[in-house]
Amino acid sequence: MSTSLREIHDQPLFDLLQQARETHLRHWNSADIQLCSLLSIKTGGCSEDCSYCAQSARHQAGVTPDKLMGADEVVAAARAAKELGVSRFCMGAAWRGVREGTAQFESVLAIIRAVAALGIEVCVTLGHISAAAARALKAAGLHTYNHNLDTSPEFYPNIVTTHTFEDRLRTIHNVQRAGLSLCCGGIIGMGESVDDRLRMLEVLAGFEPPPDSVPINTLVPMPGTPLENRKPVDVFELVRIIATARIALPRSKVRLSAGRTLLSREAQALCFFAGANSIFFGGKLLTADNPSADEDLQLLAALGLAPNRAGSKSESGNLAS
Ligand code: SAM
Ligand code: DTB
Ligand code: SF4
């Protein structure tokens, strides 16, 4: 991990916040925030042993495995999300990965075509995919693929043993080569060190190009998973990572992701000030709870944040710095 990221991260908190805010204002409109909706289209029964995840078949988290949802049901959910004002619809599948040519993959392509026809950005997270699968997803109208690093390469074997960090990098490479937008971030609060968190940011910043969006999840300690008893992350540690992510990845949307139900309104406000400009919106994540749409709309209104205007200054045309 580079000394400079550590130096940035370890500054007195207000100096770090000021540097992050200045970086943010150089690249983004201050009030803009992206709302993304999340739907689990294939829940539970996953072969992998990711120790944070309630959907692994190896843990007893009480998640009943479901088969892949039908396109009609997904489109109804996407339409409802669009009416609530979200600009991106993200769909998650509890798979190690999916191969092109399979019935499951063809069904996902049909879902993507149907949701894209609503005129909303479509994102999926399906686990590992090949270069050919990434190209087929792009051709079906997919905007973004989410595939997280989750932590540093060094800490990764402590949280997952059924696939490797290099497997994750291979899929990320396939996604970027296919011309898809990349959403890639991680989780804090799994027992990793600050150096692990910064190493993850360093790997993300080294991608060419860096991810368009970077979800920062705080661990939701799901009962029945090996990490169920982890202590919640201290709010200032979360704010420090968000601010450091903003500085290390100035042109990426930084998403304040899982774990917001454990944060006060004031803590979330501090995260937005530190550079977060995207959230998952709607009462449910994949299996865990998220703040309700009403609560979030009230919070955003109280802070004067403008939902779904999360284009960069240069993207929005007349404000380029
Ligand atoms: N199976 C695919 C994969 O692993 O990439 C996609 C679904 S997986 C559930 C998507 C992401 O959700 C994970 O990479 C992780 O960052 C996040 N996640 C899962 N469970 C979580 C939890 N309990 N707390 C915080 N983040 C979690
Ligand atoms: C991401 O980084 N976080 C989302 C999304 N990408 C797929 C998932 C959060 C899952 C939280 C735990 C759950 O709902 O089971
Ligand atoms: Fe499966 Fe993804 Fe959960 Fe790992 S994070 S157990 S790959 S659904």
Order of helices and strands: HHEHEHEHEHHEEHEHEHEHE
The coarse overall form would be: globular
CATH architectural designation = Alpha-Beta Barrel
**Distance N to C terminus:** 30 Å
Fourth CATH level, the homologous superfamily: Aldolase class I
Compact summary:
The chain is α/β, with parallel strands linked by helices and 321 residues long. It is built from 11 helices and 10 strands. It has one domain (3-7, 15-307): TIM Barrel (Alpha-Beta Barrel), CATH 3.20.20.
Please characterize this protein's 3D structure.
- This protein is of the alpha/beta class and 321 residues long.
- The chain is built from eleven helices and ten strands.
- Strands 1, 2, 3, 4, 5, 6, 7, 8, 9 and 10 form a ten-stranded parallel β-sheet that branches.
- The C terminus is likely disordered.
- The structure holds S-adenosylmethionine, 6-(5-methyl-2-OXO-imidazolidin-4-yl)-hexanoic acid and iron/sulfur cluster.
- S-adenosylmethionine binds next to loops.
